Hints:
Oligomer: single chain
Order of helices and strands: HHHHHHHHHHHHH
Amino acid sequence: MGQRLSDHLTKKLSDIDAKLKDEWEAADYQLVSVLWNSTEPKLMAHFRPYRTCYEVWHKAKNLYANDIQRLYESVRNLATLQMTDNDLSEYLARAQSTIDGLKLMLVDDDLKKLLEKLDNMFMVFILHGLPKEYAAIRDQALTNTSIPTVEELIDRLTQVSLPGDGTQTNPESSALISNFSDRSSGGRGRGNGRGRGRGGRGNLRCTFCKRDGHTQDWCYSLHGFPSKTANVAQTSPSQRLNLKLPCLPMSIRSIYS
């Protein structure tokens, strides 16, 4: 803007008046060189095929579609800020710099946009507190073009691990990884669908022996093994060989004693 050349970022060569094309194109080639020299070498493979400022700039916009990654870095820097070597002045300078950066990203005259930015910051704080096994979820949220709200993030994380069912879905295979932009996705449900066959025993947990697959009323460790096999008459000989009965509570065991 200081050189009055910002239109090279927003206009294509075909949009320029024919009388000005030669001069405009020459300036554009020079500016492309400036953009390339401003790019980290490891990223040049993404930008080298593009020959105009407009193409390079829009490729960068597609790669970095939002400020969530920058916001995450600022939040992480602030959350992990510590004074080292007893250098108070350096510590305070880093703190002030980090806070000023956050303010620049959050402040907005539009109240609606301000609330959206605050929601993003709260969402980033939640992502920052996740342990390393949830790294895939965090990376998905930070790189997806559709930014989840705090409520959406919490709902998806709740679907990954529901309290009280004794199971935990592998975060890397969870519904949250698939696509944050899918607003209609309901996740994979309680317990990841385990134990739906044979009475849903996969979701049971005994409060006595702390093992999965049964409740306290059916616990061998608490009630002992049944003295006789139940329902043997209704099974074939081949089925009896593989018959596995749950442990019966005392009130039911007395029937077979």
